[in-house]
Structure to design on (174 residues):
């Protein structure tokens, strides 16, 4: 007769979470649900904000300490801010591309309009100034930094809006 040896299988464990705000292996469902409610309150969250949601203040305090809610919620905030920053940077890139195309289109239109005019129809200073401004617009758009686009660094040394200056210059020569 053959005797079979069987091993007892250990209960299956969840893999350790890769992100701190995910459910921990030793964290029951109830405390994790409370943590998510706490985490989702945002950076100004307080434990007392969860009063009246089905958990006692005492249990919330115990769970908060045992499962490190403050640090985990802060990690969540950091991750969501990074994601927001990435979306914002992509929007800035799209805007920058749009501004580049608009500057080039303005240059093409200005050149087309100038080509249709005879020298007698437009003063030379106006044609030269228009070409200079179009070239500057395209150059500035291509070389502007992300910081400038985000409003972190001043767009010009004197703080004047370049579009306002261009409009004023055109009005002065019209």
């Amino acid at each position: 007769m053959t005797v079979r040896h069987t091993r007892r299988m250990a209960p299956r464990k969840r893999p350790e979470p890769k992100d701190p705000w995910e459910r921990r292996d030793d964290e029951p469902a109830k405390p994790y649900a409370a943590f998510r409610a706490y985490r989702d309150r945002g950076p100004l969250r307080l434990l007392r904000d969860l009063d009246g949601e089905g958990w006692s203040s005492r249990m919330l305090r115990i769970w908060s300490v045992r499962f490190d809610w403050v640090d985990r919620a802060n990690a969540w905030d950091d991750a969501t801010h990074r994601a927001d920053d990435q979306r914002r940077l992509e929007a800035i890139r799209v805007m920058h591309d749009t501004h580049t195309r608009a500057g080039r289109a303005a240059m093409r239109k200005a050149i087309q309009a100038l080509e249709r005019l005879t020298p007698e129809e437009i003063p030379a200073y106006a044609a030269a100034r228009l070409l200079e401004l179009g070239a500057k617009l395209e150059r500035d758009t291509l070389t502007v930094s992300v910081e400038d686009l985000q409003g972190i660094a001043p767009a010009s040394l004197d703080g004047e809006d370049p579009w306002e200056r261009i409009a004023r210059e055109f009005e002065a020569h019209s």
Remarks:
- The chain has six helices and no strands.
- The longest helix spans residues 69-116.
- The chain has two domains: 17-67, 88-173.
- Residues 17-67 form one domain.
